[in-house]
Amino acid sequence: MAEKKSGGGAGDGSKGADGGKKRGFWSRLLGGKDEPQPKETLKDQSEDQTSADVTPEEAAALEKEQPWQEPENSIDESIDKALDQIEEDLKEAPDAEPPTPAPEEAAAKAVETVEEELQEISELEQAAQAASEPEPEPEPEPEPEPEPESESVVTTDGGDDTSGGGAGDGSVATGGGNKEDSGEKKGWFARLREGLKRSSDQLTDNISSIFTKRKLDDEALEELEDTLIQADLGVETAIQITEKLAKDRFDKEISVEEIRSVLRDEVSKVLAPVAVPFELGTAHKPHILLMVGVNGSGKTTTIGKLAAKYSREGKKVMLAAGDTFRAAAVEQLTVWGDRSNVPVITRPTGADASGLAYDAVKEAQAQNCDLLIIDTAGRLQNRDELMAELEKIIRVIKKLDPEAPHTTLLTLDATTGQNALNQVEIFGKRAGVTGLVMTKLDGTARGGILVAIAQKHKLPVHFIGVGETIEDLEPFEADDFAAAIAGAQ
Ligand SMILES: Nc1nc2c(ncn2[C@@H]2O[C@H](COP(=O)(O)OP(=O)(O)OP(=O)(O)O)[C@@H](O)[C@H]2O)c(=O)[nH]1
């Protein structure tokens, strides 16, 4: 495993391979010269070489038939002669087109090049747009190398190769235990309220500035609507709230507390239908849960928290480290698995993720697990080839259980803002997302986006995360969330 890690590398290496392909974009843009030699040329050369292979006997026979004759002219003389001939030909046919490249071909090539460049620019723009607030790490681009011969590894109790705790990336938070030990552990609602404080403060500060000593007239309602939209709640919800206020309180003085209360009630109405608890149930054994999402959205952390939760409840849980692009992701999941004493199926970096998923399902079935959670590499929703890879993982799992995955959870980073709407749409279409988890609701002013997502997509929201430790993930409750975001009681 250590060797493979330096191949962590593998990730880089493959990036390099891809980079090799992409290098052309910048060099072409800058008028680069080192385009690789066309394959056809190389092929022709090798074919010529092959035809030149003659056995000594054949050579002797040929020599007999056509004895070797000293050429009349030296090579230089022959070349001079040929050049003279070409010059004469050109004089005779001055309008003759140069043999290559044909103008149509050149034009087609130029158009193709420009199209490629535009495509790559558009991909870069989309990637930049998708990477709003905390910029997701550059996604692992390499196509995974299938490694059918490499065995998946089941790690339990901190296999020796990972005991370095090594997540080493600090991405597995340990604060949970400390908080509990020091008796500082707060109730969930207090943590939720604290987490959503920035979203709530921004929203209610703006509302206060609109309504200080002012009647609820058309202008105030319009300003309120803008404020709600800016808080990412979505146009529909914003209109719903202002209409409700206009209906009940138009032209009357209204306090900020009263507005908070309407805000809480209306947000709660939007969220209630999507606040669906995740039921593990017994219908499927193992229940196969696939975790998907963009880079850094909190998939692995959420899996760790879920593994802890269900193993504490006495369920037999298994994890599959399907992010085979990043060695650190595998280690991170292994650390989470170790904490909860949950086995983790791993494969070396760069291995085929669908092969790993297949092995994991087989293993979880053999061990009669209650829950198998499969991690996947982060991918931007506009990367078609990476989304296709996700589809492949799902196809492969279905070979062992046609109804699997029984749950496909999309993790959404609350700090992403509006882009989360697009993530839900594309992951929904490509991966058949059945439910959502919103992470990082702590410390963002953009928590309102969950309301817009609920309004638009109506997908169940199973959990929300307000921190990095085990106790920072809880089932989603519409009323709590609405009260916390409105800063109301
Ligand atoms: N503040 C906060 N941080 C979180 C939360 N959930 C996850 N994180 C942190 O976000 C970072 C990324 O989380 P990961 O779980 O590694 O995300 P991922 O989606 O698996 O990332 P990739 O494998 O790169 O796609 C880590 O530092 C986590 O500790 C949360 O609810 N709140």
TrEMBL record:
This protein's UniProt keywords: Cell membrane, Cytoplasm, GTP-binding, Hydrolase, Membrane, Nucleotide-binding, Receptor
Compositionally biased residues, Gly residues: 7-17, 161-177
GO molecular function, a single term: GTPase activity
Recorded superkingdom: Bacteria
Membrane protein topology class: Peripheral membrane protein
Amino acids binding GTP: 293-300, 375-379, 439-442
Enzyme nomenclature, EC number: 3.6.5.4
Residues in SRP54-type proteins GTP-binding domain copies: 460-473
Biological process, per Gene Ontology: SRP-dependent cotranslational protein targeting to membrane
Cellular location(s): Cell inner membrane; Cell membrane; Cytoplasm
Biased composition (Low complexity): 124-133
Pfam short name (any one): SRP54
HAMAP family tied to this protein: FtsY
Function of the molecule: Involved in targeting and insertion of nascent membrane proteins into the cytoplasmic membrane. Acts as a receptor for the complex formed by the signal recognition particle (SRP) and the ribosome-nascent chain (RNC). Interaction with SRP-RNC leads to the transfer of the RNC complex to the Sec translocase for insertion into the membrane, the hydrolysis of GTP by both Ffh and FtsY, and the dissociation of the SRP-FtsY complex into the individual components.
Subunit structure as annotated in this protein's UniProt entry: Part of the signal recognition particle protein translocation system, which is composed of SRP and FtsY. SRP is a ribonucleoprotein composed of Ffh and a 4.5S RNA molecule.
Protein name (database record): Signal recognition particle receptor FtsY
Organism: Maritalea myrionectae
